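Cross-posting from the chemistry board since nobody answered there.

I work mostly on the small-molecule side, so proteins are not my area. We synthesized S-adenosylmethionine and want a rough idea of how it might sit in this target. Sequence and SMILES are below. Is it possible to get a predicted 3D structure of the two together?
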Amino acid sequence: MLKQRYSIIWDCCCDHGLLGMSLLQRKLADKIFFVDILSPQMALLEKDLHGRFSGDKANWQVICQDLNDLEVPEVESQLFIIAGVGGNKTIQFIESLCAAMPTLPFDLLLCSVHGNYAVRKVLIEHGFFLKEEQIVFENNRFYEAIYVSQSGGQAIAATGSVMWDKVNPKHQQYWQKTLDHYRKKAAADPAAFGSIVADYEALLITG
Ligand SMILES: C[S@@+](CC[C@H](N)C(=O)[O-])C[C@H]1O[C@@H](n2cnc3c(N)ncnc32)[C@H](O)[C@@H]1O
């Protein structure tokens, strides 16, 4: 999904840092920051990076702190990757980053473990546009990889748009699962979830 080079890529909530390390190997940025709140894990990662990338020490840095408190340099061409956390946390991080950079456009690559409809709504509110999106099926779970930019692209649809392949049985399964989930929620709270059900029904990804 990532082809473009950036000045800075942030591997946010990086845990073992595997994603950021693969980007370091591919030399996709001048600098890669690894950020996570867990200090023992960050100490291990720092050691691991020294072992594997000692020659490229200027190209990476480990930061142990809450992503919501991140101080971001005034540099153009920055990408923040946030993967493997829930929808509410992802939304909180997007809000924090937008507050930290009110006038500097940036890109995001998101892969939330759920709550993508609400995540996309927040992206739309904050002036992001779609670069690319994909449905990912891994370890028997569905994810949505959402790559967006404040510098232009296609309009974002809250349900996802170009990622859906109507003849792909896995996509049909994911659509049905998502629809069932929101129908259950709408049965308990029609005012909050009725329109979400209607949006997914309108997609009609069925065999
Ligand atoms: C399941 S791991 C995701 C790892 C990796 N991004 C992936 O997709 O495989 C979630 C990580 O988020 C980190 N995390 C949770 N809240 C955070 C916060 N407020 N600031 C920074 N990191 C946070 C946790 O410490 C944990 O390492």
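Reply from a structural biologist on the board:
Welcome over. Reading the output above for you: Residues 13-15, 35-38, 66-68, 83-85 surround S-adenosylmethionine (CB under 6 Å). The radius of gyration is 18 Å. Happy to explain the token format if needed.
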